[in-house]
Specification:
- The protein has 8 helices and 11 strands.
- With about 260 residues, the protein is of the alpha+beta class.
- A 6-stranded antiparallel sheet has the order 1-5-6-4-3-2, with helices on both faces. Strands 7-9-10 form a 3-stranded antiparallel sheet.
- Helix 5 crosses helix 7 and helix 7 crosses helix 8.
- It is globular.
- It starts with a strand and ends with a helix.
């Protein structure tokens, strides 16, 4: 096996410690998220700081070849995009390292290490709990955060409810941290359509979309109703595709169950 370990030189950790954690990854039982595709665990480092490790599953047979020779791994992209965000003045859990395991002809698996951020909530709570304290103000500040990303030409393709951590840092003052970074585009500039489409995954509720659209319209100096209509158009488009996908999955599961 060929193992590549890249460590952030600004962080107090060694390749030896990283390698030890990966070798013992299966025995770490502190899960942040446990999925069929990827898992996230946390562990205490020798420095006393807590790190999260995202394990990316072994890709399918085609991607084993693609990731081995032609494309950066999800772990490497997560690490590099985190550096890009921080260098651009945005927040994300501090990148520590990434690890790739390969064979001569195939890609195996990869891991991304970053510092744990103790958040007060994610965007998901704003969707699921309409009575969340100061919800409208948080949505407005989140919109400003997203506007600033767009102004910097950053298109976060997984801009969805679970991928923004939110910390309250003062009275009516919030900070936003992006996570799950392996799918991002960096543009010289973003047009109105790209900006509005980037909100499509966040909430199925029109009242939330209207709060964000009104705030964005002020920041972008665009007519309010035009901004609401366009943001809602892309939200409905995404929700329609999502529901069709879920229905297909349900149908397939039922067919498999009959066999």
């Amino acid at each position: 096996m060929i193992q590549k370990i890249e460590v952030n030189q600004n962080y107090q950790i060694t390749q030896t410690e990283i390698k030890s954690i990966i070798n013992n990854f299966d025995s770490i039982n502190q899960y942040i998220a446990k999925g069929t595709r990827n898992s996230i665990k946390k562990t205490t480092l020798e420095s006393g700081k807590i790190a999260t490790i995202k394990s990316f599953k072994i890709p399918n047979i085609i991607n084993k070849f693609v990731y081995r020779f032609f494309r950066k791994s999800k772990a490497q992209r997560s690490y590099e995009y985190a550096e890009n965000l921080i260098n651009s003045g945005f927040k994300t859990p501090y990148p520590i390292a990434f690890v790739e395991n390969k064979s001569v002809l195939s890609f195996l698996d990869s891991y991304y290490f970053c510092e744990l951020v103790e958040a007060d909530l994610t965007y998901r709570e704003l969707v699921e709990i309409p009575t969340w304290e100061n919800r409208e103000e948080i949505l407005k500040q989140f919109t400003k955060f997203t506007f600033d990303l767009h102004e910097a030409g950053i298109e976060f393709l997984d801009h969805s409810p679970g991928n923004t951590l939110i910390k309250q840092v003062g009275e009516n003052q919030y900070e936003f941290y992006l996570v799950d970074l392996n799918r991002m585009n960096f543009h010289d500039s973003m047009n109105f359509e790209q900006r509005m489409k980037n909100f499509s995954r966040l909430s199925p509720y029109k009242e939330m979309v209207e709060i964000m659209a009104k705030e964005y319209a002020k920041l972008y100096q665009k007519p309010e109703q035009e901004t609401i209509d366009k943001m809602w158009f892309y939200t409905e488009e995404f929700q329609h595709k999502f529901q069709l996908k879920q229905a297909r999955k349900k149908k397939l599961k039922a067919l498999i169950g009959k066999k």
